[in-house]
Amino acid sequence: MRRFLIAGNWKMNCGPSDAAGLLEGLKEQKSEVSEDVDVLVCPPYVSLSMSVNYLHDTDIQVGAQNLHFEDNGAFTGEVSASMLTEAGCAYVIIGHSERRQYFGETDESVNKKTHKAIDHNLGPVVCVGESLEQRKEGIHFDLVKDQVTAAFDGINEVDALDVVIAYEPIWAIGTGETASPEQAQEMHAHIRSVLSDLYDEDTSEGVRILYGGSMKPGNAEELLGQKDVDGGLIGGASLDAESFAQIITIAEKLS
Ligand code: 13P
User: Fold this and answer.
1) What is 4-254's CATH topology?
2) pTM strictly above 0.90
């Protein structure tokens, strides 16, 4: 069985002092995490090192929200994979819809970043998902297929198993509107069939697929209870220690 991954994407929230407060609360709420569940927090760059230090005596891992696909050089404002591993990151979010929408992220840059993360033993959490217009047009399955296919271009089946996919329907992000468990399951199963075509059945079964979009304690159980939902990428609710801890507890119960 695939292990759940419960990941918090803090987005542009929590500089070092707020991060310390949130992590303190999380440690209080959740002093121990079952070994059947992986837990990850993704603070902004400036709070990564302190978060790693703060969590060193826990099983909670730290990830970044982006990386550049070059190793180093004249790329003002960017951060490379080796810098993230040096800071103690275990994962990195790639191609979040907010980056695609506001910062020119493309399927091509997502693919380059995915390769770079794998080269540096950073677990890529690759985000895919459609807008409301695309869903209304009925092109959401094709669009997500294209996003997944592009992200995995040139990645062999061994490395593919280290990639985590996060299905985040844009219309459900930060809106309070959640995909129904059926809608999530349907898309996750579709993504698995795309992976099966790209690789094989075993690989498609081994890749973790998270759901993201207004996941909270009140809906986590039915979403995480779906056969092909292997965890959550959680925005708003991860900024509240109690809510995030409750979602982790739900994943533990379902494991
Ligand atoms: P919300 O949980 O705030 O909807 O955000 C989801 C998300 O974008 C996580 O990456």
Assistant:
1) TIM Barrel (3.20.20)
2) yes
